[in-house]
Design goal:
heterodimer, A: alpha/beta, 12 strands, about 35% helix, B: mainly alpha, 14 helices
């Protein structure tokens, strides 16, 4: 039973030139306790989707269709139909989010403890002592000294510490889902490592489901059970993590893998994807990846291909040429990449 | 050139290290590091400079108090110039014929002892007692007007920002910018001319002074009502001339604050709208306005002169104008000095308040930046 089922979700941004179709017909399930990674380049709609899931999109955004069904076994509802008070209670208590901008995620003029307290109180967590005890537990869990951190203001903590504090705060209400939007992007590589280890550890201890948004494939590969590749607002491939890394079937997924430097690869083996993503206001007819795709044929222009089952039923790709992709990759072409990434 | 033996050199170094001067400097260093010490030292320096400039400027004014008194006596009692001069010279405590630097050092000496001297014209009355009798009224009117405009202005600015581009927003911000561009004395004159003289809605003449004659001062409802009645017109002017500033500043500060990442995160955390508006958006938006408030408070105490003159409100400004007309040197010096002190105190309070409100500013030792 999935804890979150998203069906045909589309989100537009209103602009002077017309609506930007930032997320188009996205469908996926998030199972209890699993980690789903969403990968794609900047502008592919990852963050719009993540923010849309808790309906925190900017005012110019509008959900044009779809359903976001939350079901934790006790309660089930469509997030899109919640009225404002129930939506407020849903946020953080059921679905918390660790932001990309964790560095500026805290109110600069009140202490970290007050912000934990605010969070607990907003969700009726009871008395101060209970919130305090839980906060200390969580800060211990993220390897921070509660005495020091709780008295501090955000500017007195380092970037890595702030990220840990935000993770601890995300777990305060024991949510079933934690959305991590590029949680390591602003951190140095050693701190990234520590945060990734921490997240894996916490997930094992607390058993929440995770939606992990990243453009860093190596981190996604490490944490994810299943992966979605997004391109131009659509999900173009959906697969288990091994399938996606060893047997990608959408040319864009292949392109993403080839754009990552590999430890054992020959010099010059890194290849960027030529061209740039399409204009999301005036989408071209047919497959939106067509102009950049090395596998394209005339037929690709006829329609935007739906997700098709490839290889196994749990692996889908939105490409009519997936067999050609499979043939081109052969049996081992990308295997070394995946090995070094994992 | 004497050669220094190693032993002597060592001795010199040790003496230097132990010199009492360096120890004193060390202790001062600790005190100096505290923001309050720096602020107080700056305040003392400002007071000294202001009083010196005032002292000099006043004595550059044409016509001394003696001459003005002589003119007055000649006109009033038909005295001859010599008689008038003799009578006038007996009226003044200070010898204005003394060299200017002697007068200056005497003035400074008295100032250090907290003595502002006696008024020339009200003999035997100390400047301090005159100031204490008028200053509270000005501070009351200015303070009430400013505080009201601040509280209501930031409220309106906040609402306007939350309802950006609504009819309310357009009304409030357009109104704010129009009203803030009209100078205070014009507003005061318009009130007197339109509501006082043409329409006769306001009993202008009864409202003169700080309170009605014959009413007993004290914390009685009658007295408080009466002083509010008398102060209401100056308060209205101070209120109207400043509310636009607060509306516009708060509106733009709130708009910037709403864009902050931490506000988005607060929403994601499911905090109530009320809590987000007060502790997250409002609290951060109001920070830059605190220092603006202190600057305005200083400017208004100085600018109250004309407003008090128009309404004949018995405050510092009215008294300053009469002391200037009569060349009452000590009183002028005293009032200008007191105005300076008020501004300094306002700024000091703003600084301290600011460092309380924004933890990023100077926790230990001056402004550390963000």
């Amino acid at each position: 039973m999935p804890v979150l089922s998203v069906r045909d979700l589309s989100i537009d941004y209103r602009t002077r030139r017309g609506p930007v179709h930032a997320v188009r017909d996205v469908t996926f399930d998030l199972e209890q306790g699993e980690t789903l990674a969403i990968i794609g380049e900047s502008g592919s709609g990852k963050t719009t989707l993540a923010v849309g899931l808790i309906r925190l999109s900017p005012r110019s955004a509008r959900v044009t269709s779809g359903e976001i069904r939350y079901d934790d076994g006790k309660r089930a509802f469509d997030v899109l139909s919640l009225e404002s008070e129930r939506l407020r209670r849903f946020r953080w208590a059921d679905c918390a989010m660790v932001f990309q901008a964790a560095l500026s995620a805290f109110n600069p003029v009140i202490t970290i403890w007050e912000q934990f307290l605010d969070t607990g109180r907003a969700h009726g967590m009871g008395d101060k002592h209970k919130i305090h005890d839980r906060t200390r537990e969580l800060l211990d869990l993220v390897h921070l000294d509660p005495d020091r951190v709780l008295r501090s203001y955000a500017h007195e903590l380092s970037g890595g510490m702030r990220q840990r504090v935000l993770i601890a705060m995300a777990l305060l209400l024991d949510p079933r889902i934690v959305i991590l939007d590029e949680p390591t992007t602003a951190l140095d590589i050693l701190t990234q490592r520590a945060i990734i280890d921490l997240l894996r550890d916490l997930r094992a201890k607390l058993g929440f489901a995770t939606i992990f948004i990243s453009h860093d494939l190596s981190i996604a590969a490490e944490l994810a059970d299943r992966m979605l590749t997004m391109y131009a607002g659509r999900v173009v491939e959906r697969a288990g993590v091994d399938d996606l890394f060893y047997r990608p079937r959408h040319p864009y997924s292949v392109g993403l893998m080839r754009a990552v430097p590999r430890v054992s690869g020959a010099l010059g083996s890194v290849a960027s994807i030529p061209g740039s993503p399409p204009d999301l206001i005036r989408l071209p007819r047919g497959c939106s990846y067509y102009p950049r795709c090395p596998f394209h044929v005339e037929q690709c222009l006829e329609q935007d291909p739906p997700l098709l089952a490839v290889d196994t039923p749990d692996h889908e790709a939105a490409c009519i040429r997936w067999e050609a992709v499979a043939a081109a990759l052969g049996s081992d072409a990308e295997a070394p990449v995946a090995e070094k990434l994992a | 050139m004497a050669t220094v033996t190693p032993a002597q050199g060592e001795l010199q170094i040790r003496t230097f290290q132990r010199s009492p001067l360096s120890r004193v400097r060390g202790n001062l260093g600790g005190l100096w590091g505290r923001p309050i010490t720096q602020a107080l030292l700056k305040a003392v320096l400002t007071i000294y400079v202001t009083s010196t400039i005032t002292f000099g400027l006043i004595r550059l004014m044409p016509g001394s108090p003696v001459e003005i008194k002589i003119d007055e006596l000649m006109q009033q009692s038909q005295m001859s110039y010599a008689d008038a001069a003799a009578a006038a010279s007996g009226l003044f405590d200070i010898n204005l014929n003394a060299p200017i630097h002697e007068q200056y050092f005497e003035y400074l000496g008295n100032l250090v002892h907290g003595n502002l001297g006696n008024s020339f014209l009200s003999r035997g009355t100390s400047v301090m007692s005159i100031i204490l009798s008028v200053l509270p009224w000005t501070l009351f009117a200015v303070g009430t007007g400013l505080l009201l405009s601040f509280v209501i202005g930031i409220g309106l600015g906040l609402i306007a920002a939350y309802r950006r581009n609504s009819l309310l927003d357009h009304t409030v911000s357009t109104g704010g910018s129009i009203i803030s561009s009209v100078p205070g004395y014009l507003v005061a004159l318009l009130i007197v001319l339109i509501f006082g003289i043409q329409l006769r809605w306001i009993p202008i003449t009864q409202m003169r002074g700080a309170f009605s004659p014959g009413i007993a001062p004290g914390f009685t409802p009658e007295f408080i009502g009466d002083i509010l009645f008398h102060a209401s017109l100056p308060i209205t002017v101070f209120f109207l001339t400043h509310i636009g500033l607060w509306i516009l500043s708060m509106r733009s500060a709130t708009l910037a604050s709403l864009e902050e990442d931490h506000v988005t995160v607060a929403r994601a955390r499911g905090l109530t709208d009320g809590r987000i508006t007060t502790a997250y958006v409002g609290r951060n938006a109001v920070l830059p306005l605190v220092s603006q408030f202190a600057i305005a408070a200083g400017a208004v105490v100085g600018g109250a002169v004309i407003i008090e003159q128009i309404f004949v409100y018995q405050g510092v400004g009215l008294r300053l104008v009469s002391s200037v007309n009569q060349r009452d040197y000590p009183l002028m010096q005293g009032i200008i000095l007191m105005t300076t002190v008020c501004v300094i105190i306002a700024n000091l309070i703003a600084d301290l308040l600011y460092s309380r409100l924004d933890p990023r500013i100077g926790r230990a030792g001056g402004a550390t930046g963000k």
